[in-house]
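RECORD TYPE: inverse folding
INPUT: structure tokens
STRUCTURE:
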């Protein structure tokens, strides 16, 4: 593929806004004032469109700043601004820098590598957990079952063999109501 074609595809995709599904995952708050921590743009709602109130002179200060720096201070004519958070970037989901669209594009374009990474990580973590479980059982004389119940191995007197006592309460190997919990 030619460099020009690749550049055009990247630039086109670079400006693709985040999908509604991705926004639903990211949304963490809503506000009448929001700053993008990536590009430092500040979005503020027009008070005629929102039920929330600004502090004294706060809205006028934002309007003044918007006149001085129109690309940094942006007035929004909606009830609120939906904000999201990913990778230590917080800001309006529809910010002009499109940081959330770029994150989504990255995740979608690299999903095969990401899935492979997670599969490999899960397998390694499972093996570590399995070894830890075996070591725990060996050292403690207790057996952990897959249904998260603890089974205590008790050595029978005289026989030299272990038998299992299933423990469903906080009492480990003790008697409850005069009966041993088996």
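DESIGNED SEQUENCE:
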């Amino acid at each position: 593929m030619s460099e020009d074609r690749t550049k055009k595809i990247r630039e086109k995709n670079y400006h693709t806004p985040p999908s509604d599904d991705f926004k639903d995952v990211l949304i963490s708050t809503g506000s009448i004032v929001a700053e993008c921590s990536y590009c430092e743009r500040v979005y503020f709602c027009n008070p005629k469109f929102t039920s929330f109130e600004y502090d004294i002179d706060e809205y006028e200060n934002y309007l003044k700043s918007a006149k001085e720096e129109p690309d940094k201070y942006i007035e929004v004519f909606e009830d609120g601004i939906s904000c999201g958070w990913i990778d230590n970037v917080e800001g309006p989901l529809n910010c002009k820098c499109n940081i959330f669209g770029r994150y989504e594009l990255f995740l979608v374009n690299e999903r095969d590598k990401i899935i492979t990474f997670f599969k490999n990580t899960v397998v390694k973590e499972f093996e570590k957990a399995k070894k830890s479980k075996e070591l725990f059982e060996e050292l403690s004389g207790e057996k952990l079952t897959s249904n998260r119940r603890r089974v205590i191995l008790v050595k029978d007197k005289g026989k030299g063999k272990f038998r299992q006592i299933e423990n469903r309460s906080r009492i480990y190997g003790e008697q409850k109501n005069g009966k041993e919990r088996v």
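NOTES: The radius of gyration is 29 Å.
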